[in-house]
Amino acid sequence: MDGSAKIVEAVRDLTKLERRRMAGLLEKSWYDLDICALNLEQTVDRDLMEADGKVLTLLDMKSRGVEIPADVEKRVMANRGSIVASYTTHMEHIFTRMNLIRKRTAWTKNDLPESTIGEPEEGPSSRVEESGNKRKVEESENRAGVRKKRRVVETEEEEDSTMR
Asked: Disordered: where is this region (predicted)?
């Protein structure tokens, strides 16, 4: 029995090592998908800037009185929508894979964040706008905090003057 207990223990150790190796490979895949999502976002931002430039050029030409065929106008306008739809589809697929990996390796307590995608109508640049808004809110909160501190100091001074 002593020999069979050693074999069982060795098999358990090998199983643990295999599970850890698999978790490591899955975690690497998660980070690769994260990099892929960032690269996709940069590409889409570039494509959207190009599409927006075409839309602005089209509007500029129309304002100058240049006759633009309807099919060209529709194609230019539809291009932007197609870029956003494609981006949303790809990002949903990537985030679904990332979340499956996260759930599969949850037993390792890997601290992988859950990946989410915003509203489908939001473009990739919305994250930049949100971060700018967050910074503005934080700055206004900091200013409000300074005002509060000043008020607190003033009330303490008033209390000291009334105690005399």
From this structure: 111-164
Q: Residue 114: left if φ>0, alpha if ψ -120 to 50, beta else—which one?
A: beta
Reading the block at residue 26, the tokens are 């899955």
Dist. CA 111–CA 31, nearest whole Å: 12
pLDDT in tens, 14-42: 888 888 888 888 889 989 999 999 999 99
How many Å apart are CA 128 and CA 57, to the nearest integer? 24
CB atoms within 10 A of CB 88: 19
Neighbour tally for 90: CB within 10 Å = 17
* pLDDT tens track for 67-124: 988 898 899 888 888 999 999 999 999 999 988 888 887 655 656 666 666 444 344 4
Let me know: does 91 contact 40? Beta carbons within 8 Å.
yes
Contact between 30 and 98 (Cβ < 8 Å): yes
Do 99 and 67 touch, CB atoms closer than 8 A? no
Among 99, 108, 94, which Cα is nearest to 41's? 94
Contacts of residue 116, Cβ cutoff 8 Å, sequence gap at least 6: 95
Task: Give residue 20's identity as a one-letter amino acid code.
Answer: R
